[in-house]
Design goal:
elongated; 8-stranded mixed β-sheet; alpha/beta; 24 helices; 706 residues
Length: 706
């Protein structure tokens, strides 16, 4: 039953995707996909020298020249007119790099798989923004394996299958085995598909047959020198001379990227087209060449623009890419590119003014990035040594007081001065009829920031469900509410949109088709996560096992919620765990936090406490009825390195809400510090390995006073 239903839905999804793709232009990227590990350094080490990085931690991001160019192309191209497909090898590890491809709508179902781990790119980034890299090929070097003849036959069949779908462009790089590129080129030639080959990647020669088979050959300056043996390329004339030496070996068009000196294209007809670089604040040049080549390819092959227009777009994309750190994070989007190109039109004075504005914006963005990195380091030290940098928010509706104004902005004002940092707004209830400007002003006056937008589907419309409602029209309206909330989140600078599907469930046995209900919820979350409004926003499911409006939830446990997130399969989709909900489900909150934290899907935590009598959610002060459970929860939040906001979801019906809020903050800080002390107990892990419950209880009493 379940397996048959899954096959049915998968077949339906494939059919829909094929119908949609049939009317689009297709670009195929064959190449590498890595996890990039960026190491900040003051300078490169000398031979046999050891140096220490300039920052205490590395940064991780998806990379690899093939993936970079695929994502760059997907971000630049019109998604309604272009389908991008990536063909590479996915490794077996926890990085799940395919999720980054899915995030940008890149087709990747015809990738190969390997028993090796993903490729890794070690990027040494100096203070000037120059990047020096070493690539460990990993799965990128493991295309099928086996004997050469069989491998080539399988590769040819796969590339023929891909190109039969009507591709108009193939892009290749040198970070994958030589024979893979040869089979890809042969297939492209059979199908009449233009080829753009990036010279970057493995330091290996390119034979004349390969040069003669591609339409555009694209080295940077150092690659041009290496491949031609010409050590002098300091002048434009020397660059053109080196490019023409490649043409003498068979190359048609040679596109040379020169960093801050711009781009030179030497065409097969002998024309030399030059494009100066656009002004930029260089932060990290890691993927600038990939962005430039993708922009050029998009302009010429997908948009039908001239070579000159393609080079202009390439220069703009490179300029934007160097202004941000990381490979994929730095790749510009279609809107950014259009805005920068618009700055280049008009009078010289206006042009200079607009470019200056762009430079100032880039510098400001980089300064903010540096400041945020410093804030993270300070917060980490405070969190580890004092437990004093936890970030708090509290339920806004708890601030309602009898006989006092109860509007949203009044409630925000009431949360000022209590030790809170953030406000969580319910949508649409809290924000209906308000302008974004007046909400931001109220937050600023209160010394607070927006933390999350929390969905509360109006019960009069969604009594039978929101994402699981039997009517597709109603489900679509529910998705629109979430997308509108994403707009508010971006406008207010909130970190998450939290979806509580209160009525997505059932009350009676035989009332629901569980397979259909589950699939509706999965598909709705996918559509929301992929929407233009939400794909840059974290979407977090707040599950609850039971409610008076749906006694059996479609997602009744943490494990079920995590399963749903995995089936949705979107990087920006995760979970918010509510302590009261977990107690209501009979779970140990600490264990649930470990499960979700291990999967890197813990987007939020909501603190409270409960007796859970008669199936009720009590919303009591944090750590009041289950103090040891609350202590262990804080222990595991530290173990999984939770960095998000601590939100108090409590209902002080008979207490002063301000005093209750301040008590929660003090209690959370106290338990956090006690949990840190427990982690530092050298004997605790030994006792846990032995499952020695009584000794652990004695340890908690003697050392922590619990």
């Amino acid at each position: 039953g379940l397996a048959l239903a899954a096959l049915f839905f998968e077949a339906a999804a494939v059919g829909e995707r094929q119908r949609a793709a049939a009317s689009k232009k297709r670009a195929v990227l064959v190449g590498s996909i890595n996890i990039d590990i960026t190491i900040p350094i003051a300078r490169l080490p000398d031979r046999e020298e050891t140096i220490v990085s300039s920052e205490p931690a590395v940064s991780l991001a998806t990379g690899g020249k093939g993936a970079n160019q695929a994502i760059a192309l997907a971000k630049i191209a019109d998604e309604d007119e272009v389908e991008v497909e990536f063909v590479g090898v996915l490794g077996t590890d926890d990085y799940k790099l395919e999720l980054e491809l899915a995030r940008w709508g890149i087709r990747h179902d015809r990738c190969f798989s390997s028993g090796l781990p993903s490729g890794q790119g070690y990027v040494m980034l100096d203070r000037s923004g120059a990047a020096t890299s070493i690539v460990v090929s990993g799965a990128n070097g493991d295309w099928l394996g086996g004997d050469t003849a069989r491998r080539r036959k399988d590769l040819a069949e796969r590339f023929d299958e891909v190109l039969l779908d009507g591709s108009v462009l193939m892009m290749l790089q040198q970070e994958i085995p030589k024979d893979v590129n040869e089979e890809a080129v042969s297939a492209a030639r059979r199908h009449g598909v233009p080829i753009l080959l990036d010279a970057g990647g493995e330091d290996r020669p390119i034979d004349d047959a390969m040069l003669a088979s591609v339409d555009f050959f694209c080295p940077n300056e150092s690659e041009l020198r290496r491949l031609t043996g010409q050590n002098r390329t300091g002048s434009e004339e020397e660059v053109v001379e080196a490019a023409r030496s490649l043409q003498q070996r068979g190359a048609a068009n040679v596109l040379v990227t020169l960093g801050e000196r711009g781009i030179i294209l030497v065409t097969g007809e002998g024309r030399v087209v030059k494009q100066p670089a656009m002004p930029a604040v260089v932060v990290d040049a890691t993927a600038a060449g990939d962005a430039a080549r993708a922009a050029f390819a998009s302009a010429v092959f997908l948009e039908g623009l001239t070579l000159e227009e393609g080079l202009l777009k390439a220069a703009a994309a490179g300029s934007l890419a160097v202004s941000k750190q990381g490979a994929v994070p730095s790749l510009p989007g279609r809107g950014e590119l259009a805005e920068l190109l618009a700055h280049g039109r008009g009078s010289s004075e206006a042009k200079l003014q607009k470019v200056a504005v762009h430079l100032v914006d880039a510098m400001q963005e980089q300064l903010e990035t540096m400041l945020e990195a410093l804030r993270r380091r300070v917060r980490g030290w405070l969190r580890e040594n004092q437990g004093s940098d936890l970030r708090f928010a509290s339920r806004l509706n708890s601030m309602r007081l009898a006989g006092q104004p109860g509007g949203t902005l009044d409630l925000v004002k009431r949360q000022a001065g209590l030790g809170l940092d953030y406000v969580f707004f319910n949508y649409p209830q809290h924000l209906e009829g308000l302008g974004k400007g007046e909400v931001l002003r109220a937050l600023k006056e209160a010394g607070l920031r927006a933390g999350a937008i929390c969905i509360r589907f109006p019960l009069e419309v969604y009594g039978l469900g929101s994402f699981t409602h039997p009517s597709e029209d109603v489900r679509e309206r529910a998705r629109q509410i979430v997308e509108q909330a994403c707009g508010w989140a971006r406008a207010l600078g909130a970190e998450d949109v939290v979806v509580w599907p209160q009525t997505d469930g059932y009350d009676y046995y035989f009332q629901a088709n569980y397979t259909a209900m589950w699939q509706r919820q999965v598909e709705s979350f996918r559509k929301v996560a992929d929407s233009s409004a939400c794909k840059r926003v974290k979407i977090s499911l707040e599950w609850k096992p039971t409610d008076e409006r749906s006694r059996f939830s479609n997602v009744p446990s943490t494990a079920a919620a995590l399963l749903l997130v995995r089936e949705v399969g979107r990087e920006n989709m995760g979970l918010t765990l509510d302590v009261g909900h977990m107690i209501l489900a009979g779970e140990n909150p600490a264990q649930s936090v470990e499960l979700v934290g291990r999967a890197n899907k813990l987007f939020g935590i909501q603190l409270g406490d409960a007796y859970s009598r008669l199936g009720a959610e009590d919303g009591l002060a944090f750590g009041s009825t289950n103090p040891i459970a609350a202590l262990e929860l804080m222990y595991w939040l530290q173990e999984v390195d939770y960095r998000g906001i601590y939100y108090f979801d409590t209902f002080p019906e008979n207490e002063d809400p301000k005093r209750e809020c301040q008590h929660n903050i003090r209690r959370a800080r106290h338990l956090y510090k006690r949990a840190r002390e427990a982690r530092r107990q050298g004997t605790l892990p030994q006792l846990q390995r032995a499952h020695d419950a009584l000794s652990i209880l004695q340890l908690l009493q003697d050392s922590l006073g619990v």
